[in-house]
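Page header: ASSEMBLY MODEL / two components / 608 residues total.
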Amino acid sequence: MRTKVYIGGSIVAIFIIAGALGPLVAPYDPNHQSLETMLQGPQWFWGPHFLGTDNLGRDILSRIIFGARVSLLIAFAVVFISGFVGVILGATSGYFGGNIDFTIQKFVEVVWAFPPLLLALSIMAFLGQGLFNLILALVAQRWIQYCRVTRGQSLSLKAREFVISAKSLGASDAQIIARHIIPNLIQVSLVIGTFAMASSIISEASLSFLGLGVPPEIPTWGTMLADGRIYISTAWWLALFPGLSIFVTVLGINLLGDALRDVLDPRLKRAGTGI
Amino acid sequence: MGTYLLRRLVGTIPVMILISLLVFLLIQAAPGDPTLMLLGEDSTQEDIDQATKRWGLDQPIYIQYVKFFMSAAQGDFGRSFKYDEPVLDVIVNRIPATLELAGASVVIALIFAIPLGVWAAAKPNSWVDNTGTTFGLFGISMPSFWFGIMLILLFAGILNILPSAGRDTYGISGEPITGFYILDSALQGNWAGVRDGAEHVFLPALALGSNMLGILMRVTRSSVLEVMNEEYVTTARAKGLVERKVLWRHVFSNALIPVITVVGLELGTLLSGSIIVETVFSWPGSGSLLVTALNARDHPLVTGLVLVYTAAFVAINFLIDVLYAIIDPRIRY
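Prediction written out in full:
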């Protein structure tokens, strides 16, 4: 348990710090091309390019650092927006019940009926590439887990004494939801959010890998992998390092999520990691 | 039970209608004029007007939707731009490959996950448990497409013992009967073909199944651990049964229900995972077809595939519910 927190925490911290500092720690401009340094293998400490260079002579370490920045920022945005939408809809659905609940739950059922990733793929395919569409595509199904869990919780919360007493004191529905229901949904949302973060990183990488993510001039781990795949037989380092970054980051987040769930909400144990 | 299943089946109809509406709205929201896209940039205004009329694009949007829905419900998604064939035919040709891959992934996931999970749970917190759990977490955290690329690098590139792309070596498999190459070869007694098919499917199936493997291993472990505390297990032990028999006969058979549930739930993830894994391994299934269609901007084919995938997903969820109702007679909604 404690090891999980230490390992997961340090992995995530390293990538967040690297991503945040970006230009300060990256040895080169991630988009600087050079024909002279094309496809050089990893040189570790014995050369200028620690993890080697890609097919356009760009420094892989620098691209991974900038990729961390893009991937983590997108994932944070996605998790935050999904949580916001999901918790508000879930709390409203559970608190009011009746027709409002029915409508929201029907909507949940329809969106949830798409296989994971497919809705995101369709959104990107029809609406086109771009940061806004990408975030929209990743949020499209990710708010549902928050909505489902928080709906159940607010169903039981609304029967609790503190809600009834607030009501008898004349608090409006909006006040009750904002002050008494939602604060009690934060813990469980944190746990869902951690796993949603992990799944967003993988989904974003998948979309970018298929060429449907961010525009190609922005370095992300997914686009680096897509480029690297072509050179797999001659230059293994092109595909190894970006993929390893995704894997290690997601592993770190999952470790943290596991630990957080054990502490905050053991009942969620079976919830899995989602999309 | 009959009425429950009937109600559940009827319940999927509005969901499918709303899904088709959502897909239709997405197509409508796509930037660019569809007539211009089909006719080309140098078409005259007269051509455009004529085409708009012919395709019914001048009619109100709800009539367009009703038309779209009626033809989609009959399996008519139009003609593919790229293949110049009816969309449904193109898709149906590719489905066996995807099913073969998905089936192989489930088999691989189950073969590794169940023994590992039971073993880990039998000795909680031992090195076996820790190693197993760590591997489970690896499986969950691994992006399947990257794992696939690494498998190609290792088994096809460095060791050179397994093929890295496609479904068969040219000329080895016989005449297709069902479209499932391994099954077809087995039916014809073509054992070289069976071997060839299995060699081709192994790496993509392992890549696609790694995620499910990790999840199943964890679920098996926690489910077995839970059942271990039941009174009937204590009874079985008290009557002097060997631990191995307690574990497999009493614990495992009862721990299986959550495992089956998760297999069902993960089938959807497997479907979407196949889109990307098929691309990595050039596997000629419906997943790589979707990517091809996306890159070719073949909108009818994309729409058809999205609807077929979603219908399959809805059908899988329905079948899981049927399975539940059979396994656990208490379940009634």
